[in-house]
Design goal:
By secondary structure, the chain is an alpha+beta fold. The chain has 3 domains: 1-36 and 206-256 and 327-390, NAD(P)-binding Rossmann-like Domain (Rossmann fold, 3-Layer(aba) Sandwich); 38-75 and 191-197 and 259-315, no CATH class; 83-178, no CATH class. It is 32% helix and 23% strand. It has helices spanning 10-23, 64-70, 98-105, 107-120, 129-133, 138-160, 169-172, 198-205, 219-222, 246-249, 331-344, 364-384; strands at 3-6, 27-30, 42-44, 50-52, 59-61, 76-78, 83-87, 90-94, 126-127, 177-178, 190-194, 211-214, 223-226, 229-232, 235-236, 239-242, 259-269, 279-281, 290-293, 306-315, 326-327, 350-352. The strands form 6 sheets. It has a 7-stranded mixed sheet. Strands 12-2-1-16-22 form a 5-stranded parallel sheet, with helices on one face. It has a 3-stranded antiparallel sheet with strand order 5-11-6. The N and C termini lie close together (7 Å).
């Protein structure tokens, strides 16, 4: 049976491992990049600091099984994600919370705002900024508008290259105002990183004699869609798991789906520490959105200095060295995606999974859970079609 998985990130790697472990069927993974691990890829830089090449990643989840399933391949160490943002030249707690309010407006004004928030939303744990702006209370409305203008609007405009007014609500709602002093950036119970890094974790996941990996290979360059089947390099594919951008699979026939990318610049500073937290957000800075001090996130063995990564958002352009990171989800782009998805449904034995292929802004834990869910669908499909590949 000819089973191909396109992409060696979490979606493709987990599904491939489940297929070989539970169904004992060989799998070929085709990966466009020169490495496994997708956007979680990390490596030691020239200063012996473990740098995550596509931006900071920490596994956070309320589902312990997400962490447990990865413990089979790597020891996991706790790491609680805490962040700061810089607004008007000073550090402010992120996620925005009661502490942030005091930092932004001072204790006297904060006293009134905190009291009104507690009285107006007694049963809420957090509130999206777009909802708070709609309040009829003039003081709360003024604070919400100030926070939106100085943080949300400016950050989103850089991150997405669009006005936040046309972005899908799911994007803006990822960073709510917490109605407490909750300071975990992600309010999730379990927060871990692989002890030896993500690349080592992926090496273990993919270490199986029935998994074959082809790096530096673009599946779409040798794939063909005809008679409601997919062929690769002239051979019919019995089952395809596709984790790439869906418009590229169909040669952009309904139009390009937009994705955002990042240019990441690195600098070495010969001091033991630069920032009070490992990740700092910059909504008001020109051009860049975030800095990460990797010595205090993923670690390393250099006691003398520290590596800083600065992220500059940009549009993803097909055919360049850029990597698609985030789907730009609007009402218009969702309609384009649905055209691709509707046509894909006509191809038996083709399954999509992951942020790019599903055109959804998954967190890592959601991506892992979705991979397990997709595998169950694949397993059921193979059981119901025992003659595939004969």
């Amino acid at each position: 049976m000819n089973i191909i998985v396109v992409g060696a990130g979490f979606s493709g790697s987990i599904i491939a491992r489940k297929i070989v472990d539970e169904l004992n069927i060989p799998v070929t993974i085709i990966e466009k990049r020169p490495h496994i691990a997708g956007n979680m890829y990390d490596e030691l830089d020239e200063h012996n600091i473990l740098v995550q090449k596509y931006g900071p990643h920490v596994l956070v989840s309320n589902n312990w099984n997400v962490i447990k399933c990865l413990q089979k391949y790597s020891s996991m160490k706790p790491y609680v994600v805490k962040e700061l943002t810089v607004i008007d030249g000073k550090y402010v707690r992120l996620p925005y919370n009661y502490e942030s309010i005091q930092q932004l407006v001072g204790p006297e004004k904060a006293m009134h705002i905190l009291s009104k928030l507690r009285n107006s939303y007694p049963d809420k744990k957090k509130i999206p900024i777009r909802e708070l702006i709609q309040t009829t209370d003039s003081e709360l409305n003024a604070f919400a508008q100030m926070l939106y203008d100085k943080a949300y609007r400016t950050y989103c405009a850089k991150q997405w290259g669009l006005s936040p007014d046309i972005l899908d609500y799911s994007i803006m709602d990822r960073v709510p105002l917490y109605l407490s002093y909750q300071e975990r950036y992600m309010d999730k119970d379990f927060q871990f990183i692989p002890e030896k890094g993500f690349t080592k974790l992926f090496e273990k996941i993919l270490d199986h004699p029935k998994i074959k990996i082809k790096l530096n290979t673009d599946f779409n360059e040798k794939s063909e869609m005809k008679n409601k089947h997919i062929y690769y390099d002239g051979e019919k594919v019995d089952l395809l798991v596709y984790t790439g951008a869906l418009d590229e699979l169909f040669n952009n026939k309904y139009g390009e789906l937009p994705y955002r990318s990042l240019n990441i610049e690195y600098e070495w500073q010969d001091v033991p520490r630069v920032f009070p937290e490992a990740i700092i957000s910059y909504p008001q800075a020109i051009g860049y959105t975030r800095k990460t001090e990797y010595r205090y996130l993923s670690g390393g063995n250099n006691p003398k200095g520290t590596t800083i990564a600065t992220e500059y958002p940009c549009s993803y352009k097909k055919g360049t060295s850029l990597t698609p990171f985030y789907p730009v989800i609007t009402d218009e782009t969702k309609k384009i995606y649905e055209q691709y998805k509707n046509e894909l449904n006509q191809y038996p034995g083709v399954f999509v999974c992951g942020r790019l292929a599903e055109f959804r802004y998954y967190n890592m834990d959601e991506c892992i859970e979705q991979a397990y869910h997709t595998y169950k669908t694949i397993s059921s499909y193979l059981r119901n079609n025992p003659n595939i590949g004969e």
